[in-house]
Each structure stands twice: as C-alpha cells, then as structure tokens.
Amino acid sequence: MPDHGDTYQHQNRTHMQATLDSFRDAVRHATETRTPLRLRGGGSKDFYGQAMDGQLLDTRAYRGIVEYDPAELVITARCGTPLAEIEAALAEKRQMLAFEPPHFAAPGQPSAATFGGAVAAGLSGPRRQSAGALRDFVLGAQMMDGQGEVMNFGGQVMKNVAGYDVSRLLAGSLGTLGLILEVSVKVLPTPFDDATLRFEMSQAEAIDRLNQWGGQPLPIAASAWHEGVLHVRLSGAAAAVRAARARLGGEAVGPDDGLAFWQSLREQTHAFFAPSLQGRALWRLAVPPTSAPLDLPGSQLVEWGGGQRWWLPEAGAGAGAGPDGNHAGLVRGIAQAVGGHATLFRNGDKSVGVFTPLASPLAAIHTRLKASFDPAGIFNPQRMYPGL
C-alpha cells in the first residue's frame, strides 16, 4: 500500500521547490530590469522603517517547519511560516522563543506575523532584558541574493570568507540584503515558575533599583516602569522565584493579570501605546541602563532594566519639534548625550530618518554589504536608510 505520509512530504517538497523557483525568477527579472522588490510576509511590521517601495514579493507561500529537535534546542523554519505556528510547536514541548518577537496583530484579528518577517525586523519583547535579542539566537540562515542564488550561512565556509556573521546580520536588516528563505534559531525551555511584582516608585528610583538588582543573582526576566509603577517579572525554578519574591517584596500581581501585562507590552496593546496606534509619533530610545530619567516632554515607559525608553511626545510641543511634533533633533540630541540612540518607531515624519544616521565608517560598511549581496539595489531599497 502507498505511504500517504511520504506522498504528502514529496508533494510538499515539490511545491516548495516550485515556490523557490518562482522567487528566483522574480528576483532575476527585477535585477535585469532594475525593478525594486518589496519583500513582505504578513505585513504586520509594514509601519516599521522608512516607507516601503517596489513590486510586492509575498513570501508566505514558502512556509513550514523544516526541522525541530527539542533535545538540541534548535528549530529551523521557512520564511513564510506563521510565527504562531512555530510558537505552538515549541509550546507542545514546553519550549519557547525566549526573545519574544512581537506579532502586532490588529485588535480582534489573528496574527499575520511570519518567521522571516520577525527575523528581518529584528524586534524583541520584554524578556530581551534577560534572554538577549533576537539576533543572539540566530544560528544560521539561508538567503537568496540579487542574482537569484541561494546561499547558506552559519557555520558555513562563506561566513569565514565574507568576514561577517551574515546569518545574524540578516536579523534587523529589514530585507535590504536579500530574501531570507530559512532561519535556524536557538530555543529555550519554558520556565517552571513565573511571577510578577508591583512597586510604586518614581522613575529615578526604579532605574536605580533595577540596576542594583541587576548585579545580584535574581531571576528577573523583565521589567517595566510607567506612571509611577514598576513591574518586575521573575521566571525560573520555583525555589528561585519564591526566594526572589521574599527578598524583593512588593505587591504580588495575579498570574493571569501578570501574563496579560507582559503580553500587552510585547504586542503594544498596553494603554501607553494607544496614541501611537491612532497616529501619534512613537520613539524608542536605546540608552545605557544607568542613564537618569530623560528630560523629554510627554509620556515615557521604561523597559529592559532601564535600557529601553519608549517616548510619546506631546505633539508640537518643546524645542526641536518639527511641524508635526516629531522632535527628532531634541530626542536624538538627548539620546546621544548619554551614549544612546533614538528610533522613530511608529508614525511621524520619516524624512528625518527613522534610524539614527550612520557615521561615515559604518555607512561605508553598510554600502559595501548591500553592493555585495544586492548590486542592483532591488531588495527593499531605502527601507533602513535613505540612499541605501
């Protein structure tokens, strides 16, 4: 009798190869005609980066988990695989994507986020404070360059020749280097216990307290301060979480409420982000965690032990504001003064540059990388920086 499982796998491989061939044809045609391509999965991160341009190349047809070995803590999946599908497969084995990539699903709508899109955006959630960023978990990647050639990175010879860990360079590249086809990432076991504590304190006190705790052996997985309240998430072995709760004090938050709170930060459904979802500019500042509270007019939310500061400016108010209240000069000057940088995360006037302009040496490196993988400049042109 025929093995229906083998038949299905053969048909799936055939379908994936046909999809890959269609990508190759589209890329080669775009290179020959110098036609920009807009690489896109579910579109959940369309708002992020400079304005998108070019002919749409939808990656969602190239999907599926290629390999998952729970014992080795590694999963490999194609770019169009729904992020929710990957997280569900991991949850069955009590494992997780520790960097918590956001889905940014519309209220009441299922997630459209794809695995490739998550890697290309390079965004991480609240656990980034303790677990690390998305790029830290990337082990290898397969990419299609501007000539339609498929290249593998991560422990491959080409990595050594190029001199760069290309698989990690793809994380956060917003599809400007090439079409991400497959990615292998490290996963982690789901913590045995989880608890959320609440403290009432000023932003200055919260930053000081978080930095004190950060130097101690405490299972702090995430933190967030907003409007006089600091939330701290503890994750790990039950005994460690129990001991930390007794040591830190504070008010215990119910398990369901705690999970909902951290989810609201990850997906930006927390009330703080509501104005940005309605069109207000939202800035993200990356600064040294020890930085004192920043003198910025408007609302702030502090994450990652003080290392990430979200800022909603008061539209049109304060020095350095553009005609729409963008405040680019003000916020970037303040961030630079403490050794950080600022990103226009949502909305606003993108002509100021979504990302902080690169210094000449770094800009030259970006230009050389782009020219190496995409000499015709077809992949998501200018999505990260004007002129690149």
UniProtKB/TrEMBL annotation:
For the keyword Iron-sulfur, the answer is: no
| Signal peptide as annotated in the record | none
What UniProt keywords are attached to this protein's entry?
Answer: FAD, Flavoprotein
Positions of the FAD-binding PCMH-type domain: 7-190
Q: Which InterPro entries match?
A: FAD-bd_PCMH (IPR016166), FAD-bd_PCMH-like_sf (IPR036318), FAD-bd_PCMH_sub2 (IPR016169), FAD-linked_Oxase-like_C (IPR016164), Oxid_FAD_bind_N (IPR006094)
Instruction: Identify the SUPFAM superfamilies for this entry.
Output: FAD-binding/transporter-associated domain-like (SSF56176), FAD-linked oxidases, C-terminal domain (SSF55103)
As one GO molecular function, the record gives: catalytic activity
Identify this protein by name: FAD-binding PCMH-type domain-containing protein
Provenance organism? Cupriavidus yeoncheonensis
